[in-house]
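ok new one. same drill as before - structure tokens go in, u give me an amino acid for every spot. 197 of them this time. try not to just spam alanines like last time pls lmao
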């Protein structure tokens, strides 16, 4: 099993973290997105969408971080067989992709990867409101349950942990979100946890 990814990308980190939590062996292939490696003919032959992470299996490729981690975790405690539990996990993963990542991850990218260039300062500032709205939704749920889908860690938590734990790199102060901060600590304490990088 081969994973193409960027070690500082939250979406790629999701895949690495699931592999470590489940004790799965893999080969990591570092891809430099800023150098245009995802737009090379060689990479586009693997994933025409030109994005990472990308999972290479014996019978082809799988892209999109949440699809990859749910596939890897299928049948485990991180992604149980119960259809309702799976739907609740996916509900949070859609939330991550549409209501969280476009704000928190993009603000982080502008700041951390690009160095907050003058021409993107306005865009960076505009991401703050949406990011805080997403954090408030998470805060409300995490006051009710230890993890996003109840008592146990799942791929929903992995999906949202990836960019939330580095939200400060996008200018988001988590001081007003004590339940989110508690949850970050609980995910970090999971057996097999590995840090980003």
């Amino acid at each position: 099993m081969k994973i193409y990814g960027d070690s500082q990308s939250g979406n790629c980190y999701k895949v690495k973290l699931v592999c470590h939590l489940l004790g799965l062996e893999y080969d990591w292939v570092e891809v430099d997105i800023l150098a245009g490696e995802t737009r090379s003919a060689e990479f586009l032959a693997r994933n025409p969408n030109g994005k990472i992470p990308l999972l290479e299996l014996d019978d082809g490729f799988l892209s999109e971080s949440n699809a990859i981690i749910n596939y890897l975790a299928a049948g485990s405690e991180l992604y149980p067989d119960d259809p309702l539990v799976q739907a609740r996990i996916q509900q949070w993963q859609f939330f991550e992709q549409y209501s969280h990542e476009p704000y928190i991850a993009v603000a982080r990218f502008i700041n951390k990867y690009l160095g907050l260039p003058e021409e993107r300062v306005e865009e960076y500032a505009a991401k703050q409101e949406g990011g805080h709205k997403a954090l408030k939704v998470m805060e409300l749920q995490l006051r009710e349950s230890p993890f996003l889908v109840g008592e146990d860690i799942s791929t929903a938590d992995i999906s949202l942990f990836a960019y939330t734990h580095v939200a400060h790199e996008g200018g988001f102060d988590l001081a007003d979100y004590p339940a989110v901060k508690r949850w970050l600590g609980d995910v970090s304490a999971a057996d097999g946890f590995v840090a980003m990088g």
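The chain has two domains: 2-73, 83-188. and btw The first helix runs from residue 10 to 22.
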